[in-house]
Specification:
This protein has 66 residues and is mainly α. The protein has one domain. The protein has helices spanning 2-7, 29-35, 40-61. The chain is flat and about 50 Å long. The two termini are 33 Å apart.
Amino acid sequence: MLEQLSKLGLATPVVRVGWPDQFIEHGKVEALRAKYGISVDGVMDKLIPVLGKRIAERMRTGAGRS
């Protein structure tokens, strides 16, 4: 999907969230999700900086104003 967006010339920001491509040890699911950033807090930690940049860009350019 990301390759298609790139081919179309769309600069869509993407935040990747998921298990790493490596062996994941066994343990309690919630503890593993927290460790690898697949919890609500982990996702928000990755998403907020991207959203912050987008909002700042819109404010600078005046995009979205009526």
